[in-house]
Amino acid sequence: MPSAEEPxxxxxxxxxxxxxxxxxxxxxxxxxxxxxxxxxxxxxRLLIVGLAPGLKGANKTGRPFTGDYAGDLLYATLARHxxxxxxxxxxxxxxxxxxxxxxxxxxxxxxxxxKPLPVEEATCRQFLQSEIAALPSLKTILALGVVAHxxxxxxxxxxxSGFPFKHGARHELPNGINLADSYHCSRYNTNTGVLTEAxxxxxxxxxxxxx
Length: 211
Hints:
Elements: H1 15-27, E1 39-40, E2 46-50, H2 58-61, H3 69-80, E3 84-85, E4 97-98, E5 101-105, H4 118-133, E6 140-144, H5 146-155, E7 170-172, E8 178-182, H6 187-191, H7 197-210
Parallel strand pairs: 2-5, 2-6, 6-8
Antiparallel strand pairs: 1-5, 3-4, 7-8
């Protein structure tokens, strides 16, 4: 089985992101401060795709959705539906294992103000493409937010207009993989009521039942 290609620790492909990463290595010398690799089961049937590492979340810990509120909600939901083993302790060495599930970001490096540029999304897409290609049992991709949704579609060469993003939507892609949509599980979205824990649980639960 092929292994997914990951960007190097000092990946130079996006100059703005590299400069921000270098500045954070000075400001936060104890942080991971590098492209954050994917995490989870190599035989995953479900791939969850987020936006990018959070500055004081995954960029600090080196594991997707680990160390911030989005991770608290995501990992608690995965555990509730049997998609993880062990306890989540908001650090990369907590021993948590994913079961039938894997997590990646559309952009592997933390962007300023949590907003990657379109050129950065396009540049980093090669790693998402490699990730997907390395998952032989993949059945469903859950996109957290519009950026992740669009990046998945572009990875497969699909027209965005044919698969509009909508929370709770499910799309059957031409390659037979299902694309499911959810609003991103960020604190901002839950604080503003865009996404509730119940809404997120319903999306993940429906996917888990179909795996």
